[in-house]
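Researcher: Next entry in the queue.
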Amino acid sequence: MMGREFVQLQSVPAGNVFGIRGIAGAILKSGTLASDAQICPNLAAIHTETFPIVRVAIEPINPQDMDKLARGLELLNQADACVQVVSQTTGEHVLVTAGELHLERCLKDLRERFAQCEIHVSEPIVPFREGIVRQSAQPGVVLGEVGSSGRLLAIISKASGKSVDADDSRAKPEDLPRGEIHTATANGQVTLSILVEPLPEKTIKFMTRHARDIKRVVNLASSQRRHRLNAAAEALDEMDVIAGSVDVDSDDEAKTTKPSRLSELGPWLSTRMQETFNKAKGWEPLRVERIMNDGLRVLGPRQVGPNMLIYSTQVLEQSGRTSSSWYKQREHNGRGASSAATPYLSGDESDSEDTPTLESVRTAHTARDFEESINTGFQLAMQSGPLCFEPVVGVAVTIKNIVFNPEASTSSDAARSASSASSLSGQVITAVRDAIWTGLLHWSPRLHLAMYTCDIQATSEVLGKVYGVINRRHGRILSEEMREGTPYFIIKASIPIVESFGFADEIRKRSSGAAVPLLIFRGFESLNVDPFW
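Model: Structure for this entry, 533 residues:
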């Protein structure tokens, strides 16, 4: 606040700038003060053209200045609307900024103004994304190791005529559809059939564009479910979801108005999401309708990403679930949460006696008992993919079948581990995660690069030098037009963020200051190169 003095007032008329004391712990960067929060919407939402994407780890040179650094990061987080400060569980402090210039400015403010101490900064890290496409895999390529045991999985495309696998139990039979995996837990008691396939490009873009709306709907359903079950309140994830989720509607989406009520937002998102599957390869209309009505159970990663976990009709019948959309509360059939109220996956029904025998307990597992484990395995697989442990985008995972086989384990092992579903949860999580990773490698995996949109204004004399710099940075020209009445050309290009460090300085040097770039984050773009070829 700039002024000669502070004057305490009881009220301030409209059209003035004033300060309020005492809300430092309630509002971080923006907020709306209202006498009735139920009828007043949030008017202080910040919409920027940039997104924090460049990460660095920072620590003080003098360990005694750790408290100064923590306090300085809190002040920087409040002062800059486009910065994120993440404190890892290991105690490491991570600063996320919009780019190279923004990072330099934040570090300067941190050293000289907020923390006022010398700090050590790591090399910048730019995240990637992993995805799959329907293109045929290269013949004769070993795709890597999958699973916690590190067993080698060799997937050979049909063009080579043969398929070799170091672990025959995880081999892909020729009669199975592409991406379908049959897996089992370590003790063999639970067998799952999982289908992994790519989502249409329009669906991925829609889910990425409306990630904030999806998060609002998921948080609403979670809060309603916790209130219904009288469970302890859980801390909601405050981190932003997927980088590049910009709430900008396309021309097709502008035809329909997004509802303002949160209760109407879920059905609207589901309907619009279903429309994006139109004429998509491998997604029949009847199948898509069933998925959007009751098959889609959760999104990922963090329950809001552009990936889907789908239950087949058979699994829904096994779990005893009623028809429920992904944005609604999950309901159970029967009495409460008792496993005896749902059908059994295998074996005979339990005895009617009050005290269950060991055999009845061993056959009482249902698909619902492993639902949380399946969800956790799905979230882990989507959070870190098989290529470089980066988040996965554009994948649909369908749980086609779950079979419980209590006779698979030995008698001593059964007495110890088959008495409850919770003892199998860890094995189910690992099996689901490894199966999804294997299914991803059955397709053609691709890396997605974080991209900048680069707007450059330059004269005709330096156009060749500008193009040369962009090509050396693995960029591509999107458009070029001449501004009428001026000697300047407006060039729009895209450049990977990982290649953008030093780009502005180089282009100014090459053009002798005649060309100045403007970099804006535009999302992730698939690199159409087989990483194993």
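Model: Residues 140-172, 228-251, 331-363 have pLDDT under 50 and may be disordered.
Researcher: Noted, moving on.
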